[in-house]
Amino acid sequence: MLSEQTKEIVKQTVPVLEEHGNEITKVFYERMFEAHPELLNIFNKSNQKQGKQQTALAQTVLAAAKHIDHLEAIVPNVNQIAHKHRALQVKEEHYPIVGEFLLKAIKEVLGDAATDDIMNAWEEAYGEIAGVFIQMEKAMYEQAAWEDFKSFKITNIEDQGTSMKSFEVEPEENIKVPDLVAGQYITVRIKPTNDENLALRHYSIYSVKNDGKIRFAVKKEGFGEKKGLVSHDLHNSYSVGDTIEISAPAGDFKVESADDKKILLLSSGAGVTPMLAMLEDEGYKGKEVHFVHVNESEKDVPFKDEIAALNAMNNNVKVTYHLKERDGYLTSDELKAWIDKDVDIYLCGGITFMDTIFDELSKLNIDQSDVHFEPFGPKMSITNV
Ligand code: HEM
Q1: Contact, 51 vs 381, CB < 8 A?
Q2: Which catalytic reaction applies to this protein (predicted)?
Q3: What is the interface pTM, i.e. ipTM, of the complex?
Q4: Does 95 qualify as catalytic in the annotation?
Q5: Is any ligand 1 atom within 6 A of the Cβ of residue 45?
Q6: Average pLDDT of 298-322?
Q7: Mean pLDDT of all residues belonging to the chain
Q8: How remote is the CA of residue 81 from the centroid of ligand 1, in Å?
Q9: pLDDT digits (tens, 9 = 90+) for 82-94
Q10: Cβ(98) to ligand 1 under 6 A?
Q11: Is 137 a catalytic residue?
């Protein structure tokens, strides 16, 4: 239990952290990787380059500091991060390392302003926060369909639109693929060409077919210096018959609407992947589904054949493509026509798309908390904590 004094000190340091948060986490990563280069086999180097992970961690630290006397307020967000940690195989023994270097970074950046009282308070607070994560992740490890990463053979690869490929894989080891939940993702581990470290990425599954295979899709991310290390390798260097490693399915994004509710599945770009799995699953179950996909142009739309087949098979399914080249940006006027009190909204795409849609929905008095969503990027960066 933290003392009242410790909680007070932690809360009082929030403005300082807000001011220096990104700098502290930048120093933290630099120093941690110098001392523990083996952790570069877990962390996403592309995110590091773009500063994405820095923001996510800084925001989580702030969220925790603000809610230090009622940490349960951050539990919904911790749940989502814990799923990712479990999928990446972040273990209990990693937490003291992160704690040590986070505290050292606070001291280095704040200098004399970080008094012994402040440092002691933060050490205690970190222990408390880490405890919440460790406990939640322990339960997830116990429930995971298999331990660690296992080898899978690629059995099929197909082009999807202009920048995506779908992959079908089956286990090479003696494990059983569990019943998959639409909205879940798997985590792929490869050794990218010309890189000394292993690299891990999460990819959503696009089908819940129960035939011992896993199906996921990969969008080619970025280009030039910022080209996605793993996505480009999977696109260019992997073929049918090759082996990749995968950890057990994870994630808490799923359809959780009452039977009498209709659902609007709204996606952009690679966000189509979990939505397609939901369309497949809910379409067969007979739920009324409106599937809306936003993309640049007709040629970019992934999974056109699969979507058309599900549309043709199920009278309860309606499909709308919003092509920016043809229709401009998706506005509240258009959204209004698709939403009424009986519709639950599910949203998935990149951070910019999600932000835009939340802005448009707010014009219709629909709040972020009314929407089920999964951003491709850290969720905390668009969640108000
Ligand atoms: C991802 C917070 C401990 C490794 C994340 C994310 C957050 C976060 C907010 C982004 C999740 C998202 O994508 O939505 C924290 C906090 C920790 C903690 C508050 C301590 C209390 C650790 C530890 C490790 C670790 C101990 C392992 C050494 C990672 C990795 C990612 C991640 C590898 C994926 C993102 C990337 O690779 O860039 N964490 N984390 N975290 N965390 Fe943690």
Answers
A1: no
A2: 2 nitric oxide + NADH + 2 O2 = 2 nitrate + NAD(+) + H(+); 2 nitric oxide + NADPH + 2 O2 = 2 nitrate + NADP(+) + H(+)
A3: 0.98
A4: yes
A5: no
A6: 96
A7: 91
A8: 7
A9: 999 999 999 999 9
A10: yes
A11: yes
> Which tokens sit at 91?
């273990």
> Among 335, 320, 322, which Cα is nearest to 366's?
335
Give yes or no for residue 53 CB within 6 A of ligand 1.
Answer: yes
What distance in Å separates the CA atoms of residue 294 and residue 272, rounded to the nearest whole number? Answer: 9
Two tokens, residue 56: 């996510």
Of 83, 81, 33, 76, which Cα lies nearest the Cα of 57?
81
pLDDT tens for residues 48-75?
A: 666 555 567 666 767 777 888 888 877 7
The answer for 319, left when phi > 0, alpha when psi is -120 to 50, beta otherwise, is: beta
Q: What is the pLDDT of residues 211-259, one digit of tens each?
A: 999 999 999 987 777 778 899 999 999 999 999 999 999 999 999 999 9
Which of 36, 39, 57 most suits a substitution to test ligand 1, by most atoms within 8 Å of the C-beta?
57
Q: What is the pLDDT of residue 96?
A: 96
